[in-house]
Amino acid sequence: MFGSGQGVALSCCETEGGGKVAWRVFQDSVMLIAVSGGGRHGAGSSKEEEVHLQRLLENVWNCMVLVLGQDELTNMRNVERLKRDLRSCFSIIDQLLEDRQEGILGNLTHCTDSLIPPNTTVIQEAVDSFAKAADSEFGCLIVHGRIAAATEKWWRLAPQEVVLLSALVRTLSGSGSASCDYPVFLPQGSPTVAHRLLRFHLLPGADVCVLCGPTPSLHRAETELVGRFWSPLVETLRDCLAVGERCLPGSVSLRPDVLALLLINRETRRSVSCVRTSTNHPPCAPLLPSKARCWELLKLFYIFSIKHYFMQEETLCVTPEERAHKTNTEDFVHGFSHQPIHCYLVTEECKSYGLQTPQHQLFLLIPLSVPTFALRTVATQTLSDIVAATGLSPLM
Amino acid sequence: MAQVLAPGSIVVADWHRCNESKQYFSKILHRKRRRHFGLLEFPVMPPHVPVDTIHYKVFISGKSGVGKTALAARLAGLNIPNVHYETTGIETTVVYWPVKLRESGRVLFFRLQLWDCGENALRRFDHLLPSCKEQVDAVLFLFSFTDRTSFDDLSNQIAKWTDTTEDRVVKLVVGTKFDLFMHCDVAERDVKVFQKTWSLPVLHIGGEVSDGFGDVAPLLNCLTEQLWHQDCVTAGSANYHLVQETV
């Protein structure tokens, strides 16, 4: 605060022990401060930590707007009341802080965690017609916390909103409730007027939701529409659920030497990610990192790559203030006239390889036993395998 | 207001303890815990044991923090949230409960959909309460044994539901956090007096979630009994009218 009074921007500070404080002011009204303890097991360098914290601040602000609306936050009349009202967002904020669910990377990448169902067209048609029957243009089907299909308009929401709505649905779905009618404000699209998010828990692990206006009522939508559109598709939904955490249908065969992958479609801002559970691993080979560790390594490698080599897509709809902020974090990417398209990293635990094309970014974890010169082939082949198998899918 | 039904006068009380009920209760269990049903699922009995399922909508009313969400979770056998989060919209929970009617020996599956909505959300958004009231069959009025004001507020809450149009709505009072007797703020005597004045059933809940159905059975049996009774009364009066018309 002292700094900004003097026209100096100070964006974060750090202790010797690795602790870090980052902050940001939103709408000239609310300052959010994030503190990290440092000594996190295996956390990356402080740069990586900073990206994490900045993302967290942005996500927390967006989720405050989602629940309370921007007016409530910027023109506060009574601080005590606001503090009480803010309790409503705690469940989603806790989810962001704990970052518990493995395989959900959207909070970090701001790309929607997706799942490619084996029967895309059937599912897509069902989502479209269900949304239409509910007087809505915005509908989506979430399977295992990831979007399996959504209407055209749903994808036109700002990427952060899509990610945030997915997070909200995960929280709601996790509580085990059967359906809900939630007033939500869209941080970019409609920060001051609330829409209704209707969510229906079709099967354990599968939720369908629509964003709509005053009609239909939850009761009517549930009794008249859910059964009509979704009962005939129970088996199709079960097939989607069977895809599980792999996120890719069985028709996509991955090379056995891929430990984990994150694939981002840069145009649609969607991503799929998975970690393989090794089944036929030779006992004499060096121990592979655990599944949880793989997810952590994948995140760290993603941050490392976008921090040092690949540009992260400018998230749409950033305010000029936010853009100015982003340029603070520039690294040597801007020092070069060319754009790196491949990068790799060899550590004690595994090898990592990243590549980007105009349409995709792919991040891979590969066992140490694979020679470094082969990484590039593994990566390019994996990308072309997935693209070939899902080429017709509107998702990837 | 009708006389309070004696518990067990219509449905068999403690039926969940009987051996013959096992085949029904096993349908709402999965690995010894309560099974969670999606909206497209329901308990399926073998073809030679036909059982009807009847649907009811139940609204949970009560002050913020009184334990509405926790009650819904407990009745459905879901994990009870250990931190209090304000519910910021409507959340519904489905509970299946098998019941044996005393007189006919007929078994029915009750599908109770519990509607829970945070008090602050109700105040901020006008469309939520009408949505909760739409075709509702029963209301549970909640008060907390640890919060005197929530008990004193009950009459206000109930008064809101005594319009003529909602006459057929079953009403039940539930006291939550009964286990925290150290902090108890509502004396048993007051509860008795209340029960007499309003002639509404008052039940209580709280404490450890038991392994079986012991902690939820009294409440669910009482609720299903009232609902069934109300239906019979309604159907009876309808028949009566029919008879009159034909004459």
TrEMBL record, chain A:
Q: What is its main location?
A: cytoplasm
Q: Where is the FUZ/MON1/HPS1 second Longin domain?
A: 136-230
User: Could you provide one GO biological process annotation from this protein's UniProt record?
Assistant: vesicle-mediated transport
- Keywords noted in UniProt: Cytoplasm, Cytoskeleton
The record, for Pfam families, names:
Fuz_longin_1, Fuz_longin_2, Fuz_longin_3
Which family, according to UniProt?
Belongs to the fuzzy family.
The protein, known as: Fuzzy planar cell polarity protein
TrEMBL record, chain B:
Pfam families, per the entry: Ras
Give the UniProt keywords, A-Z.
Cell projection, Cilium, Cilium biogenesis/degradation, Cytoplasm, Cytoskeleton, Exocytosis, GTP-binding, Nucleotide-binding, Protein transport, Transport
Give start-end of the signal peptide. Answer: none
Q: Which GO terms describe its molecular function?
A: GTP binding; GTPase activity
Q: InterPro entries, alphabetically?
A: P-loop_NTPase, RSG1, Small_GTPase
- Any one biological process term the GO annotation gives: protein transport
PROSITE patterns, A to Z? RAB (PS51419)
Which family is this sequence assigned to? Belongs to the small GTPase superfamily. Rab family.
Report the PANTHER family cross-referenced here: CILIOGENESIS AND PLANAR POLARITY EFFECTOR 2
The molecule here is called Ciliogenesis and planar polarity effector 2
What is the protein's species of origin? Mastacembelus armatus
Source organism phylogeny: Eukaryota, Metazoa, Chordata, Craniata, Vertebrata
